[in-house]
Design a protein that fits this description.
The structure holds 2 protein chains of 2 kinds.
Chain A (H helix, E strand, L loop, with lengths): L9 H12 L4 H8 L11 H12 L4 H14 L9 H17 L12 H16 L5 H13 L3 H13 L1 H9 L1 H7 L9 E6 L4 E6 L8 H4 L9 H9 L1 H7 L9 E6 L4 E6 L11 H7 L2 H5 L14
Parallel strand pairs in A: 1-4, 2-3
Chain B lengths: L27 H13 L5 H5 L3 H6 L2 H15 L5 H6 L15 H7 L21 E4 L18 E12 L12 E10 H5 L8 E7 L3 E3 L1
Antiparallel strand pairs in B: 1-2, 1-5, 2-3, 3-4
Classes of the chains: A mainly alpha, B alpha+beta.
């Protein structure tokens, strides 16, 4: 690939979609916007993501965003009445790219390739016995990789920030209010939303295992499941938060929520200052997974989005 | 059981290993294990994870634990045999099943909200505002009562409704539906003077875990 690989923004994706819908050939649209197109674009979102994974092998983050954005624009199955899908895929791209550029963490035990073989053998056995359909497994993996994640929770938070009546419903009955935005599923039977304020800071943990609100945050990150986070957060939340970069004043009440039963928790972070004029969609872009677990605050946009 | 999984309040268990972002599954096999566990619908794996011996539990990655628990669960529920796992081939005499989950069902599966709350009228033993103490019990099998709550006094903050006591077996004759309460403990009640007088902890407790204080 040659030329400048420009990052695809939501407004560019929108323009690209309009041009494509108007019948302009993909290559021409890409040239107009100074972006790249993936080698293979398919109408199906999951296939688009797969194609993107192939591209990633040699791609920079900017390059990835560029082609991901283009795939989204070209995907006729994606509605463009919200930025959700784009946001999600760009987020996925960012996650995948940063994984590619980093080493395995200390807490992620190095796994022998024998483990991969053992799992393959178990799957073949279960398929041979007629107990599972590999195509169904593909769908389940893809769903977790592409359809649930913290972007769902970010939409819930942004809505609560702009709509006081929604916020009240969310705090009264998290499951019902979250279902209003279309999010439901496993680990979501009793979603409880806890609100951060200038005087109260909430943080979530599961000391016994890995309970986490899948419908709004997806699957938990490795560090959340680490022995150290599970053991220390209940006894020394301030120490853990400080280690993760969040210092809280002494007079703030820290509330730890140990998820051990049917309840799963989502932290409603404080809306940062300087966001009064922002749209709901733009606000959602500010909300991070960490802020919804309670190990960070949402930074105001003037701070460059860094917590 | 007083196992290694009951970690709340321990120290010396290594680093948190925080990362701003990481892939959903670090290796493809992790995704397959996760999907297998979802597709087989065998019920909770947690009792099986908790039975992994502590040294192995600490050495294993998260999805290695899932894999180990899943194999035990499959063997103990009679779905596969240890010989089949070893050989990787189905016993020719075994019956061929029909997959529980088709791709079409899989597409919906993860968006179906489970319903474990029981639609049973039971008189709650405790009311919001009651002072309660975690009982000094040491179950030898699965429980959702972390040991750090034993003997500690808190206040009922909310009645969550009626759920099956996880210590009893779901669907068995001994299956015990009972009220679950959200309990508020002060940090100092749980951890002493070392913690801030402002801080607190909330946790759900089944009725059998509590006594009046």
């Amino acid at each position: 690939m040659v030329g400048r690989k420009r990052r695809m923004t939501l407004s560019k994706i929108k323009s690209a979609k309009q041009l494509l819908d108007g019948g302009m050939p993909p290559r021409e649209v890409a040239n107009n916007l100074g972006t790249l197109i993936p080698r293979s674009i398919d109408g199906c979102r999951l296939q688009a993501v797969k194609a993107l994974r192939e591209e990633q092998k040699s791609a920079s983050v900017e390059h990835f965003h560029s082609i991901a954005g283009f795939a989204i624009a070209n995907d006729k199955s994606l509605p463009f009445n919200s930025s959700t899908a784009c946001d999600e895929i760009l987020y996925l791209g960012k996650n995948n790219m940063s994984q590619q550029n980093s080493d395995h963490g200390q807490d992620h035990t190095d796994v022998p390739s024998e483990q991969a073989l053992r799992v393959k053998a178990l799957e073949s056995l279960l398929v041979e016995k007629g107990l599972v359909d590999p195509a169904a497994l593909d769908v389940l993996v893809d769903t977790f990789e592409t359809r649930v994640g913290p972007r769902n929770g970010a939409q819930v938070v942004a809505r609560a920030w702009v709509d006081p009546a929604y916020k009240q419903r969310l705090l009264d009955d998290g499951t019902a209010a979250i279902a209003e935005l279309g999010f439901s599923g496993g680990q979501g039977e009793k979603l409880t939303v806890v609100e951060n304020t200038p005087s109260v800071h909430n943080v979530i943990v599961c000391t016994l295992c890995s309970c986490y609100p899948w419908p709004v945050l997806g699957l938990p990150p490795t560090w959340y499941k680490s022995s150290a986070y599970r053991s220390r957060t209940v006894m020394d939340p301030r120490g853990v938060l400080s280690e993760l970069g969040l210092e809280l004043p002494d007079d703030v009440e820290v509330r730890v929520w140990d998820s051990n039963a049917a309840s799963r928790y989502l932290v409603l972070p404080e809306r940062p200052q300087g966001t009064e004029s922002m749209s709901e969609a733009d606000l959602a872009m500010l909300v991070t997974r960490d802020a919804m677990i309670g190990v960070a605050k949402v930074a105001s946009p003037s701070m460059g989005g860094v917590s | 059981m007083n196992g290694i999984h009951d970690m709340g309040g321990m120290e010396g268990l290594g680093e948190i290993g925080y990362k701003e972002s990481e892939p959903i599954f670090h290796e493809p096999w992790e995704g397959r294990v996760h999907a297998l566990a979802q597709a087989l619908q065998l019920g909770s794996r947690r009792p099986y994870i908790e039975r992994i011996p502590a040294p192995d539990y600490l050495r294993m990655s998260y999805y290695e634990r899932w894999y180990t628990a899943l194999v035990t669960q499959l063997i103990e529920s009679g779905v596969i045999t240890a010989t089949e796992v070893e050989s990787g081939r189905a016993d020719p005499a075994s019956m061929k099943a029909t997959p529980a989950i088709t791709p079409a069902v899989a597409r919906e599966l993860l968006f179906r909200t489970p319903k474990t709350e029981q639609n049973i009228e039971l008189t709650p033993r405790f009311r919001v505002g009651d002072r309660v103490r975690g009982r000094n019990i040491h179950p030898t099998t699965h429980t959702r009562m972390p040991r750090y709550t034993r003997g500690k006094t808190g206040v009922v903050a909310r009645d969550r409704g009626v759920f099956i006591l996880p210590d009893s077996e779901q669907g068995s004759a001994e299956s015990k539906p009972q009220h679950v309460y959200l309990i508020h403990f002060t940090a100092q009640e749980l951890w002493g003077e070392r913690t801030s007088g402002h801080d607190s902890l909330y946790i759900d407790m089944w009725e059998d875990y509590l006594e009046p204080a």
